[in-house]
Design brief:
single chain, 1 helix, 9 strands, Beta-barrel_OMP, OMP-like, signal, Outer membrane immunogenic protein, membrane
């Protein structure tokens, strides 16, 4: 009897130890992914609008010198690509195509002969503009302040019409430089909001309309807001 009780005790103890070994769970190591913040690397395409102040300087037939300002709205598309580095610096390229509404008008009186004076109106209009710029930014999680600069071009239209509404015009493309600063904010992983200030100098161009010669110089200051989709 005693031997039977000892054998039973040994059997129960062995079964309990085996059961205890079975309930021990082995977990594999799961790598922990650190949150390094928003990534700015990639391309984007968006729409922008804003306010524009344009300054036209006119030299008419080498005699009249006028300078006028014009306020207007702008709207267009922009896109580009960003490269983010480990030190959170960002290098990118940015391009835009914009419709502009800035224009200026002047009235002239011209002595045709000793007895006749001709009255006419002249208009300079900034029709569209485009720019290709390099950007240098700094990633602050969802914020990315930046500076940008590059080459800019615009189409300028000069028109004249007299009291009888005889109309003539000439278009030319003007090329200069642009520089500015702004900030991008990531509304979501694939959507960004942009606020930007930009100064542009399109240089000077000569326009010839009939017997009239205009040397036009154009500069602009702009405040832009845009929304872009990232891909």
């Amino acid at each position: 009897m005693k031997k039977l009780l000892v054998a039973a005790t040994i059997l129960v103890s062995t079964s309990y130890a085996a059961h205890a070994a079975d309930v021990i769970m082995h977990h594999e190591m799961v790598p922990v992914v650190m949150n390094t913040g928003h990534s700015w690397t990639g391309g984007y395409l968006g729409f922008e609008t804003g306010y524009q102040n344009a300054r036209f300087k006119e030299h008419f037939n080498g005699v009249h010198h006028l300078s006028q300002k014009s306020d207007g709205l702008l709207g267009g598309i922009y896109g580009g690509y960003n490269f983010e580095f480990r030190n959170r610096m960002i290098l990118g390229v940015d391009a835009n195509l914009t419709y502009n509404s800035a224009r200026q008008n002047n009235a002239y009186s011209m002595l045709v002969n000793t007895n006749t004076t001709s009255n006419f109106n002249h208009e300079s209009k900034l029709e569209w503009s485009a720019a290709l710029r390099a950007r240098l930014g700094f990633a602050m999680d969802r914020w990315m302040p930046y500076i940008a600069g590059g080459v800019a071009t615009a189409q300028i239209k000069n028109s004249i019409y007299d009291a009888n509404y005889n109309y003539q015009s000439d278009r030319n493309n003007m090329t200069g430089w642009t520089a500015g600063a702004g900030v991008d904010y990531a509304l979501a992983s694939n959507t960004t909001l942009r606020l930007e200030y930009r100064h542009t100098d399109y240089g000077r161009k000569t326009f010839a309309i009939d017997n009239f010669t205009y040397k036009t110089k154009v500069k602009t200051d702009e405040f832009r807001i845009g929304v872009a989709y990232r891909f």
